[in-house]
Write a structure and sequence with these properties.
With 233 residues, the protein is an alpha+beta fold. Helices cover 64% and strands 14% of the residues. The chain contains 9 helices and 5 strands; from the N terminus they run ααβαβααββαααβα. The protein has helices at 8-39, 45-58, 77-87, 106-123, 127-143, 158-170, 176-198, 200-203, 217-232; strands at 62-74, 96-105, 145-147, 151-153, 210-213. The strands form 2 sheets. A 3-stranded mixed β-sheet has the order 1-2-5. Strands 3-4 form a two-stranded antiparallel ribbon. Helix 5 crosses helix 7 and helix 6 crosses helix 7 (176-198). The chain is globular, with a radius of gyration of 22 Å.
Amino acid sequence: MRGPLFSLPSAMFLGIIFFVLILFLFIFVQVGIVTVAFAKLGLTPFQVFALLIATLLGSGINIPVYRSEMLVRNFSSRNYFFRRRDLLGAGIEEPELVHQVVAVNFGGCIIPVVLSLSLLSKVGFNPGMVLCLIIVSLVCYKLSRPVSGVGIAIPVLIPPLVTAIAALIFVPSAISAHTAYIAGSLGTLIGADLMHLASPSSRGMIDAPVVSIGGAGTFDGIFITGILAVLLA
């Protein structure tokens, strides 16, 4: 009498191997897509790898720029513990009020800006770029929403599509990929972050101790918009 083809431990082991292979395949495909996109911008594979590492590591680095006069609630871990206890009917400790700090994210703001300026120096200025940048900024401003305690949230699919279409229409095809990255990255920064920070009504909704330009909810939008816009263009 033959036993089962796979025992439970071996089946679990094979399942783990399959999951790891799928994960590596997913990462390989994603890195391959990013490599293709940046190759259209004239970057070498080594430069792409260095850029990805710097972007991912830099996403956790927020550089303070100034401290505003706006007072916001600061829930520390201790305050959060007491706030959770209050839900069970226990006491509560009120959060302290602190001045909101405005910072720039290294991976989501500084790197895209530096790369955009570098690309602009290579392809030169084109009036169509300004029009694309304005269009993307306005679209991102309309689509993004301040989320209390988090920052700015923005969908990641519509801005790249709008950016690619604008780049294909308003600039020559030879520089459409470069324009797509410049307008996609800077347009998301301007529309999703800077325009909301400049708006008193939106600024009042960002109830967070630190407001990171290019970080939090807009980091994914900036990165994905730049990459997808280049691929689509």
